[in-house]
Write a structure and sequence with these properties.
There is one protein chain. This protein is an alpha/beta fold and about 240 residues long. The chain has one domain: Rossmann fold (3-Layer(aba) Sandwich), CATH 3.40.50.150. Helices cover about 40% and strands about 20% of the residues. It contains nine helices and seven strands. A seven-stranded mixed β-sheet has the order 3-2-1-4-5-7-6. Helix 4 crosses helix 5. The longest helix has 18 residues. The structure holds S-adenosylmethionine. S-adenosylmethionine binds next to helix 1.
């Protein structure tokens, strides 16, 4: 079956059962079957922490928040967070995760990343978008990126990157374990950078765990911010 954005991305996580399974796969501290996903989740958190600490921030948009993977990071920094997702089922679990992490200044809000009109320009210091773009076709990704660039001077976003190694690995996995050979919405690093360039300057890029995952994370500065739309937003590396 070919990839379909409405069915496989927008609609896929919108039920409690899928949300629970996703949460178990990435967040459960136990079990050997989900060990690779747990490892990837740990690497993701580490990468986001490192990048987040390079930008001045007191407020953040976590979109898609999923089931609250980043809660501990924001709690540790005392960041004021809006945790958003298109799926109320995912957000319900995120609420519990944020509470467990001790994050007190957080609001949960169902949102579609293609239209963030409810947020004014420069509403946040940073927007974090983890594990969504590899499930979004390029045209819609551009719309989401424009929105992030409008609402925050800095954005941290992950992309699904396709290399020869990853293509072979996916084909091998499909042959051994079954399941899809479908490449979702992966692209090359060069394509990602071209796509990002109208709205952002790329400050950093880093692989999450290239042997296990196709994810690359980018730290971006909005070109609108450069024009002064965000007032006193500081430079990366300065004290938040
Ligand atoms: C693979 S999960 C990633 C969640 C979280 N960032 C993480 O890393 O665990 C993808 C998430 O994107 C959400 N999503 C899908 N389409 C969306 C859209 N158009 N706007 C906002 N969230 C969306 C899904 O509901 C799901 O929670």
């Amino acid at each position: 079956m070919n990839f379909d954005y409405e069915r496989d991305t927008r609609g896929f996580y919108q039920n409690d059962d899928t949300a629970r399974r996703y949460h178990h796969m990435f967040m459960s501290p136990k079990g050997w079957r989900n060990l690779p996903s747990r490892l990837v989740a740990r690497r993701e958190r580490r990468a986001i922490e490192t990048l987040l600490d390079q930008v001045p921030h007191r407020t953040a948009l976590d979109l898609p928040a999923g089931t609250g993977k980043l809660a501990g990071i924001f709690a540790a920094r005392g960041t004021r967070v809006v945790a958003s997702d298109i799926s109320a089922s995912m957000l319900k679990l995120a609420e519990a995760e944020y509470a467990r992490a001790g994050c007190i200044d957080v609001r949960f809000q169902v949102e579609d990343a293609t239209d963030l009109a409810r947020f004014r320009e420069g509403s946040f210091d940073v927007a974090v978008c983890l594990r969504l773009m590899h499930r979004v076709p390029s045209g819609l990704r551009r719309r989401m990126l424009r929105e992030f660039a409008r609402i925050a001077p800095y954005t941290i976003v992950s992309y699904g990157i396709e290399t020869g190694f990853h293509k072979k690995r996916r084909e091998l996995r499909a042959a051994v374990f079954g399941g899809g050979r479908d490449p979702l919405c992966f692209c090359s690093v060069e394509q990602a950078r071209v796509e990002l360039s109208p709205d952002f300057e790329v400050l950093r890029q880093t692989w999450i765990a290239p042997a296990l995952s196709q994810e690359m994370v980018f730290l971006l500065r909005s070109r609108r911010g450069r024009a002064g739309a965000f007032g006193a937003a500081g430079e990366p590396g300065s004290t938040p």
